[in-house]
Amino acid sequence: MNELLTAAQMRAIEQAAIDSGAVTGLELMERAGAGVVEAIYEEWPAFSKPDGENEQKPRLRAVVLCGPGNNGGDGFVVARLLHQRGWVVEVFLYGDADKLPPDARVNYEKWCEIGEVLPWEKCTSDRWGRHPLVIEALFGTGLTREVPDDIRNVLLATLNCRRVAVDLPCFINSDTGAVLMEWPQNLSGVSAGHVTVTFHSHKHGHLLGAGAALCGQVVVKSIGLEFCYEAIGATTAEVFPYLIGKLQGQRLSKIPSAHKFTHGHALILSGGPAQTGAARMAARGALRIGAGLVTLGVPPTAQQEVAAQVTAVMLKRIADADALSDVLEDKRINALCLGPALGLGEREANLIRVALESGRNCVLDADALTLIARDKDLFEKLHPDCVLTPHGGEFARLFPDIAAKLDAPATKGPAYSKIDATREAAKRAGCTVLFKGPDTVISDQTGVASVNAAVYDRTVPWLATAGSGDVLAGFITGLLARGFSPVHAAEGAAWLHVECARHFGPGLIAEDLPEQLPAVLQSLSGSDQGNAV
Ligand SMILES: NC(=O)C1=CN([C@@H]2O[C@H](COP(=O)(O)OP(=O)(O)OC[C@H]3O[C@@H](n4cnc5c(N)ncnc54)[C@H](O)[C@@H]3O)[C@@H](O)[C@H]2O)[C@@H](O)CC1
Ligand SMILES: Nc1ncnc2c1ncn2[C@@H]1O[C@H](COP(=O)(O)OP(=O)(O)O)[C@@H](O)[C@H]1O
Ligand SMILES: [K+]
């Protein structure tokens, strides 16, 4: 399952399954608890060694922290299943047992037949040394507000234990990834759990915002809900954003008999003297990703500087908007890129005007985004073959009201997420928007949205280096030249961008990125089992 769900969608899918009579809420809870236990044994195989192998082996010990809702219900199931496997389990309940929802209450009572449920006050910070495993089932998709201090203190005291979060760490908003608990500064780099076990599919909060860094790793366990999409009237592509998976090598392969013009001609406009590096890096990216030809359009004053530094990339003098119109008489030029260190003057605004009026595929990045944010007339010329690539600051300049909604603290669900913001921005702009970050979100104007997650095993903090965005703009332009649709070009480029950073590793500078493409592309050819972009 690559679709990403909001809390409300997950609830609707569960409810539809229950209403259909195919499964009960209790059965789903049992499967959820069993999924957690399965994930625990997968993560720590040593737990499964039978006690009989070693007479002296002490019994395994766990603490389960249960909350006041169905997440707590999952916790009672986990406690029971671990007990059945011979563990010594201690269970704490945050809240009042009489107020538990019905399914959680049933599992509470089943646990009471086995052992004690200890009140939260007894969950003191001195007890954690004896417990190899802490299961946190305090809040999941039902988290609605800041986590209280009496929970925070316990969570911080457990950080030296092995930790499993049920569905989500209890302080992460499942729609936005916002962290609803003060996380101590000195703990940056420490995650809230070693493993987060979620059900059916990732929730947005596992991949977006600050929360993603605090889940440890996320394991998705099926609870048998696959059949339910029709039941809530959804077709997956329309409703659910998806996680961009491994690119199919086939998508990037070239037709053996093709010539260079079959693969398109990209034109990248450069800034003036001493401002040409960004466009040169974008051009190198466009060429390496497979555009048949790449030309740098340079103002005459920068011609010598650029000529001294390029080889396979071609050069064209483009003094002003009229000159650009002339160059675009060549209809083989099918993808343009404007923005990296382009400049913010009238000349540059006019270049953007001509580029947009040409109706060609057009990537607008950096300075071009600032210019269209300033000029309503330019903004209105955007069309479906454009791709905007803002980072957070540029996004706020372009869509200040949407950014304000995104920044507002969520007080009640459903919370407004980066996915909602990108979709709204794309709809307004009438084109594809790629909103950058470790949680890059891409949406086209119709609301088809995806996330390129640089988290968990794809974490690449070294990609936050000057100029890496320019290379990304070049990658997108190159794929547009090759005939990819705007949204597929943005998705493919974002995915490859992270793969290039992973391939190089720490120490990466932006120039290194295009040079990783041959190896990354090679690794994809012949491995077409991945999820299609
Ligand atoms: N609905 C279902 O059939 C299933 C639900 N499942 C589990 O149920 C969870 C969702 O259950 P719920 O909707 O009951 O929600 P939760 O159990 O996540 O939390 C809701 C409860 O927590 C309280 N609460 C929320 N934020 C709080 C805060 N900051 N401080 C104090 N109290 C707070 C609420 O008042 C409510 O009592 C999922 O995350 C998943 O773990 C799974 O068992 C699979 C099946
Ligand atoms: N912590 C991070 N992890 C992964 N990718 C990141 C991270 N921070 C930034 N990026 C990516 O690096 C690129 C930076 O682009 P941008 O902010 O435009 O930089 P520049 O203008 O210097 O080129 C974007 O693709 C962004 O998604
Ligand atoms: K939890």
Automatic annotation (TrEMBL):
GO terms for molecular function: ADP-dependent NAD(P)H-hydrate dehydratase activity; ATP binding; metal ion binding; NAD(P)HX epimerase activity. Catalyzes the dehydration of the S-form of NAD(P)HX at the expense of ADP, which is converted to AMP. Together with NAD(P)HX epimerase, which catalyzes the epimerization of the S- and R-forms, the enzyme allows the repair of both epimers of NAD(P)HX, a damaged form of NAD(P)H that is a result of enzymatic or heat-dependent hydration. Catalyzes the epimerization of the S- and R-forms of NAD(P)HX, a damaged form of NAD(P)H that is a result of enzymatic or heat-dependent hydration. This is a prerequisite for the S-specific NAD(P)H-hydrate dehydratase to allow the repair of both epimers of NAD(P)HX. AMP binds at K436, G437, P438, D439, T440, G469. Pfam families: Carb_kinase (PF01256), YjeF_N (PF03853). InterPro entries: Carbohydrate_kinase_pred_CS, CARKD, Nnr, Ribokinase-like, YjeF_N_dom, YjeF_N_dom_sf. Its EC number is 4.2.1.136, 5.1.99.6. This is Bifunctional NAD(P)H-hydrate repair enzyme. It comes from the Bacteria.
